[in-house]
User: Fold this.
Amino acid sequence: MINTIDRYILRQVIVTSAAMIGVALAVLLLERLLRILERAVNADAVLGYVSRMLVTLIPHYLGVSLPLAFFLGIILTFNRLNRDNELAVMTAAGAGLRRLMAPVMGLALLLAVFAAITVSYLQPLARYNYRALNVAAAHASLSAAVKEGTFVHADGMTFIAEETSRNGQNLRKVFVYEENEDGKSIVTTADDATLRRAADDAGSILVLRDGRRSKIGRDQGDGTLIFEQFQWPIDASGKAVRARGKDERELTLPELWAVMSAPLDRISASEARAELHARLVRLSSILVLPLLAVPLALGGGRGGQSYGIAVGLLTLLVYEQVVKFGESMADLDRLTPWLGMWLPLAVLAAGSGLLSYRAASKVSKGRLRRLPAPVEILLSIRRRLRPWRRWRI
Assistant:
């Protein structure tokens, strides 16, 4: 049953986390927008592609920013409750720290379900749509760049057209210059040309008609070729978009499970297994965040010290790098996912649970309760190594 205190804590955590998610999304999308606009021409069609590309990036950036924003929201909320003595009042009223953490754990469970939907379906589909829109925007950008009497550089070549149609698709009096790596130059001229998208969406095709193609060099084999029609593929985006499913990050969780037993041409069973376990580990990590955030938020006591934020961020950064390393090793089939990814999660969960237990004992009794014998031995060893400073949460 949710009471007034639960609603109060949930409101503080949700508002703080939502504000941080909004800031993170704005910063990340703005950074990507600048990178996209570097490749796009200021045209209405291109700007339409750019806006849709930004929308497809939201699931990816949301999956990145949501756990971190939730973690910081918990730390800032409980740190403020501690500094303003609200936590002492709630404890005096009979609400222990474990009881105060109950609504936060429930919120973590809801966020884990939402994140599961995001990483299972929204992120893979959005990733593929982004790549498809990237190719379409590159083609539209190239078409918009074609103007009468203007030199255009694309895919290692330079061309100019004396006349262009309004949409930039039909060209007249085309001159194309290309320089190969061996030092030779190729000059192509044509009376008419059409710029269109390739059938497989792998860039654009410049169709030249009634022209000639001349090689300029010192070899005796150089010459001129007269043609009625010549198709010139232009990889305007730098990367061809293929059917969804050639990259394990574009597969949903059920599809990854299926690939583990029936590998595809470009995706091995180990790659699918590593991707599947990596997503599940990151989803499970959300449930551990409250156990780590609350004790770090209370670490400074009532003095208001906020070193817990720095410690928490450093811990999550190291944990993420360890998980990534385990994922790369599992991807190469050099390490099992259970050892490379689930073991770091187990260590983080055990450490966070210990910190949470100590913090709850300190809040309820004003001192630490006696811990299990193995834990007491580890703590005594640590105190002997650093006798000048006790470990306080």
